[in-house]
Write a structure and sequence with these properties.
This protein is of the alpha+beta class and about 700 residues long. It starts with 10 loop residues before the first helix and ends with a helix. Helices cover about 45% and strands about 25% of the residues. The longest helix has 23 residues, at about 65-90. The chain is rod-shaped, with a radius of gyration of 55 Å. The protein binds ligand C2E and magnesium ion (2 copies).
Length: about 700
Amino acid sequence: MSVELPGPLPTRAAMLLATHEQLRALTENVPVSLACFDARSLCCVCANTRFARLVGGEPASLIGKHCVEIVGEKIAETARLRVDQMCAERQQIKFDYCLQRPGYDDTWFDVHLVPDFGKTGEVTFCYVLMTNTTSHRTATRQAHETAERLRKFMEASTEGMVFHDGGKIVDVNPPLLRMLDYRFEDIVGESPLKFIALDAQAEAVAAMAVSRETTYDSALIHRNGSRIPVQFSSRNLLWDGKVVRMSIVRDMTERVADAARIHFLAMHDSLTGLANRTQLMERLALLLEGAGATRTQLAVLFIDIDHFKRINDSLGHAAGDELLVTFAERLKTECGDGALLSRLGGDEFVVIQKLSVSHDQTAAFARRLLDALAEPINIQGRRMVVTASIGIARFPDDGHSGDSLLKNADAAMYLAKSQGRATFRFFDASLAQAADQALAIETQLGDAIRNQEFELFYQPQLSEPDGVLIGVEALIRWRHPVLGLIGPAQFIAVAEGLQLIVAIGQWVLDEALAQVLTWKSAGWPEPRVAVNLSSAQFRASSFVESVLAALRRHGLKGENLELELTERMLMDESDDAAATQATLAALTAAGISVAIDDFGTGYSSLSHLRTLPIDRLKIDQSFVREIVDSRDCFAITEATIRLASSLGILTIAEGVETEAQRAILRQMHVHATQGFLIARPMSSGDFERWLQTAKFA
Ligand code: C2E
Ligand code: MG
Ligand code: MG
């Protein structure tokens, strides 16, 4: 840059000249566009390269050029006004200037016009210093916009927001103020911890110490001192040029209440409000852990309402619910704090005696519960007495886990039911064995035929009063490889449920007829076997045909067979009466006799039976058992025998065990007897040996 200064040089200029080279370097290197114009003519005196490039030229080419030539008329006009202002004010002036050029982004400058005074004191030169402020301006504008956006966001947000820096709150939004019921000035400048619940402060301090984003549950304290469950999401943020911590504060009051409600529903029975199975099992597991550690005892009482289904069916579900609620209340009163009460569902309640208790104390407690439940109750205006049965299992004797204790208490409850209800029973190991056995029977029954595990036992029937063998009843047994000999009472009903009974019945018929053939061949003139039927067999459409086919297979006559039906099979209302009649007629026509088993336990009337082709009534053993002691049993048996005889139906008394019973039955002119007095049911071999030694004719 060459500077040609007018007039004699002042001392300062002399110094500048002396360091001309440094000055040149300085003007070329400062980040400022620099030029000097004659204040009056506006012709360029000198300029640095940065200035020259800005206006599109080289420093040398600008010297002497008029401002209009350099920047054009429009800018020159503005420049003129500014320079005039500077001259008038006689001091440097500063203004922003935006350079707009086609094809370029706007460029902003910070422009300083600095006057240089001549000897006379008037302004001779004007120094122009232009600093490019475009990037600074953009950054400032952006920061400003960000802050503005944030502010709008803070105000619009429904969630609370707080900014804190160096342990002090610097800003909060209106929602947070509303949440806490404070004014802006109450909060700003304070420590955030002042508003956080004491027990949540440690976590908050830890979260504030980290710079990464964190989300955690916490609690604030309202101005009135109440606690507000919140969730904080905190992160670092650039705010007004510095890094501050910002937290979004979510009010969790409703969500916490919802969660509590959901938890309550998940853990309680909705009808009675008692603990439900889930809660029971959770708490029982804890109690057992404690009892195991302290070697104490614990009792599980399984309570089931007697005949609840009957109440529900006859009075309706609303009445059933009312009863359950009343029972729940009564149990609650009796249980107090020492016991955990729950409803498993249906009419089942479970009480856990939590404190170590003796066997006798538990028994007394169960008795108290039963007494309380058996108090008369008013349901829908009806006064009634409803009882319950209780089964008890004790820790550690009867089980170690909640599941096993509950299962065993349940088994004991069934025992209480089977022994007359309205009572309680303690679990004992034989009950568990019975349950295991029932399971084994159910799972293995299907294979028993194939494995040839069934056997028939035979029980003789003697005519009265002469004692002639008139036939045998075939009674099935299952010789189980592990459980030993199992009676029909334990598996016939199961077989019926599993639809195995028709196949088993077919096996029985075949086996019994095969045996009869053997006896016949051995010299017993006309043996007759009585076979028990199940209703599924009797109702099968091919029933008669399958019986006749079996007789043919063994070359036997109908007279060799008697079929035992129960009253219920004949009376079943769902059955087609005409079909029953036809089946019986077909059997009778083939010479097969028909006996009604367990007579007197069903609801049939003799007048109805009269219409059916029936040969024999088997008087149920329950009448025979009490015939000596009960006037009723005596009278019923006597009337049955008399009426049957008058209708031409034979009678046989089952379950005769004593001579006294037999004597009475003989007096009543029963036609035959069967029972332990004569012989127990026996295997075919035993029966044959019995035949040899029997004293009958
Ligand atoms: P049920 O037909 O009434 O048979 C008489 C039951 O009384 C037999 O029991 C017999 O052992 C028993 N009993 C005989 N005499 C006396 C006595 O003097 N005192 C006492 N207390 N009991 C006596 P079991 O063999 O246990 O059979 C029970 C029931 O199982 C039978 O009652 C019958 O209904 C059914 N059942 C037996 N075998 C079969 C079968 O092959 N098929 C079908 N469907 N049911 C069968
Ligand atoms: Mg029978
Ligand atoms: Mg019977």
